[in-house]
Amino acid sequence: MKKLMKPREAEQSCLALLQLCDVVSKLTQCQAHIVKLGLGNNPMVLTKFAATASDLKAVDYASSVLFSPDSSTHLYDAFLFNTVIRAYSQTRHAKHEALRCYRVMVKSKVLPNKFTYPFVLKACAGVGELNLGKTVHGSVVKFGFCGDSHVRNTMVHMYCSCSGGIESARKVFDEMPSLDSIAWSAMIGGYVKVGSSSDAVELFREMQMRRVRPDGVTMVSVLAACCDLGALELGKWVESYIEREGIGKSVELCNALIDMFAKCGSVDKALKLFRGMSGKTIVSWTSVIDGLAMHGRGEEAVGLFEEMIGDGVVPDDVAFIGLLSACSHSGMVDEGKRYFSMMVERFGCVPKIEHYGCMVDMLCRAGQVKEALEFIRKMPIQPNPIILRTLISACRAHGELELGESITKELIRAEPLHESNYVLLSNIYAKMKHWDKKTKTREAMDKKGMKKIPGSTMIELDNEIFEFVAGDKSHKQSKEIYKMVNEMGRKMKKAGYVPSTSEVLLDIDEEDKEDALNRHSEKLAIAFALLNTPPGTPIRIVKNLRVCDDCHSATKFISKIYNREIVVRDRNRFHHFKDGMCSCRDFW
Asked: Torsions phi, psi of 458, nearest 5?
């Protein structure tokens, strides 16, 4: 007769078997062994079982065994739940499961501990549900874990990850009795995520004043803020700060530096950093290809892509987006078509909507509107509104106004509450000089409470970011700025500049149209720069919208008249103006 194991022996036997588990099939055998030995309610064994399942990416199996309604397991503890919740919270597409497990924990009347909430809050951040996060915050207060720094840090991260939670995040952050680099990084990163990059930079400066040493994660967020603001000088300072403070240059930090320099207008510096980098990843290659694309250096981008393939790096779908974008911005239509085919035939990448969008953009920029329309009709997936808006803009630019009107009306029917669709239709009617229809379109926008996004331009000067909007008179130098704008206008006309009054979408006389053009935000920013920077030094500005034809023409004249290199980053690309010429060769 076989001798029965004592409880302690049985427990140690199961723990040893679980330690040896390296495949899921062995895990199922262990689970049968646990039941056979009567250990279905042994917290230590169950926790080890859950941890092993997590290591084997089989947490769903463990959860079904432990928490299903017909499970024989009833004796739970916080450590068991924490193990499963943590596993789910660290799995990209299983955040909802982590929260479901937390609900089972509460329903089972198992008291959470301070290790529970960082995982639960991380799951809330993953699903981005603010109200749910607030409910969990309430539980944190109820169970008295507000004083734990790890819980508070994760709470800041959670609020920053939910779109309307940035103010709550700052409130939690400000109420923390002590702040480590993790808390600062979470808050700075949160500001960047919601587009409040100026606040991110300001908070980083406060962090320095408090003498808290940042880590690589902090610096990646600060560099992302520099990218957003186009703050090259700040970005350069950040690079020297990283060197001076001896902050380890991880691959992620090197990639962030490359991305910053490329998006702040110094793509040659980005290329230099890339060349000196060891351990390049696909992200490193793609960042430089994207940067070259934005600067209209398509041939170099294509050359770098070919070099990447030659080095044995297999391009992913993101790399092809950068490559096709480079072909689009440089008018390389034949090359773009060839690489689109190569993506499918040689590398087996299934084109996504972004790739189709690049192709449509490329054809539209080249003036091939009818071919772009035919391409859209043959796409195996439905075009998204971005692709249709690209086509509509091309119709307006290349005189296909009736086609543009027809497509825009269809888009408005599909998206009746998207303001940019009405703006597109209004612009087409203005180009057609159908002022009554344009007025009715604008009135429809007003009735629905829609407003056109105003043009704005940012400029970095003496470690400060200044922002101008069209017709802005809020700056303390406003009087001098408009005086400079008038001077620019006189000198440009003398040099042969003719205002593109067709850009003014109003039924007003030509003189008023010229005045409206002079109040565009980039002209105000350039005038401000001419007043406040030494003669001959470069001017760098960042615009939130695509640069208009008139401002593009005017900036060419200004660069020659005032002997300034003017670098403009608009919504789509960079323009380098010098000696009356633009790097885009009037192709944007």
From this structure: -110, 150
Which sign, positive or negative, has the C-alpha torsion 242, 243, 247, 248? positive
Structure token digits, residue 365: 């920029």
CA dist 365 and 372 (Å) reads: 10
As a whole-number percent, the residues of the chain with pLDDT over 90 amount to 59
| 3-class DSSP assignment, residue 157 | helix
Residues 6+ apart with CB under 8 A from 231: 201, 225, 264, 460, 465
pLDDT tens sequence across 344-392: 999 999 999 999 999 999 999 888 999 999 999 999 999 999 999 999 9
Tokens 């920077």 -> residue: 533
The pLDDT mean for the chain works out to 88
> How far is the C-alpha of 153 from the C-alpha of 169, rounded, in Å?
10
Closest CA to 215 of 177, 178, 189: 189
Q: What is the helix (H) or strand (E) element at residue 303, kind and residue range?
A: helix 298-310
Q: What are the residues whose beta carbons fall under 8 Å from the beta carbon of 188, sequence distance 6 or more? A: 200, 203, 204, 207, 218, 221, 222, 225
CB atoms within 10 A of CB 482: 18
Indicate if the pLDDT at residue 484 is higher than 80.
yes
Helices 59-67, 43-55: inter-axial angle, 10-degree rounding = 150
Task: Encode pLDDT of 395-424 as tens digits.
Answer: 988 889 999 999 999 999 988 888 889 988
CATH 2.40.50 fits 369-452, yes or no: no
pLDDT at 73 over 90: no
Instruction: Compute the distance between CA of residue 186 and CA of residue 177 in angstroms, rounded to an integer.
Output: 16
b/e burial code for range 323-359 (CB count within 10 A of at least 16 → b): bbbbbbbbbbbebbbebbeebeeeeebebeebbbbbb
Structural contact between residues 517 and 503, judged by C-beta atoms closer than 8 angstroms: yes
- pTM here is 0.82
Characterize 514-523 residue by residue with b for buried, 16 or more Cβ atoms within 10 angstroms of its Cβ, and e for exposed: bebbbbbbbb
Average pLDDT over residues 141-148: 91
**Could you tell me whether strands 566-569 and 539-543 are parallel, antiparallel, or unpaired per DSSP bridges?**
parallel
Domain ranges within the chain, ordered by starting residue: 369-452, 457-582
Stronger pLDDT, 24 or 290, i.e. the higher one: 290
Number of H helices, E strands in the chain: 30, 6
